[in-house]
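thought: fold this chain, then report.
action: predict
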Amino acid sequence: MGYRGAIIMSIFGTIFMMVAVGLLTTSHSALLILPVLVLAAFLANLFRVRRSLSAIRQRTEQAGKVVMWSTIGEGVGIPVAINVVKNFGHPEWVLPAIALVVGLHFIPMAFAIPFKAFYALGAVLVAGSIIGMMLPQPIGAALSGLIAGAGLWVASVLATRRELNWASAAQSTG
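observation:
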């Protein structure tokens, strides 16, 4: 997980937030800068604590394979999900469908890494996706994006704190 994972989650959280805000406002809204500012704060914090996170734990070989296959599944699943919802005549469900695939990809990773927050993140993204598909559009899709973005941001913070705690414990025992 570590430093790189926290960066990836904060970036994707920002993308979900920007799309959601874009669905609720005009494409030229000043509100679109807010997710970028949050991302900048995340990245500034991550770069500030980077040295503490340099002693990143080595994943087991099995955990590495699970992360790899989950990520491959996500990469294949997102275009498939987009294609499915568009072919069923619901292009407004694209964002919730992406959130569903992203949420599902965290479940096996939560078990393999192990990082219990990924179970919660996966559940939140899947639930947000389902809710987003059930509500009137574009509110449903926007809500799904806001839930996914917030979930990814929270997971990024939790992952960073977890790694900092681990690095601190490693330094005190080493």
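thought: worth noting. The chain has six helices and no strands.
final: tokens above.
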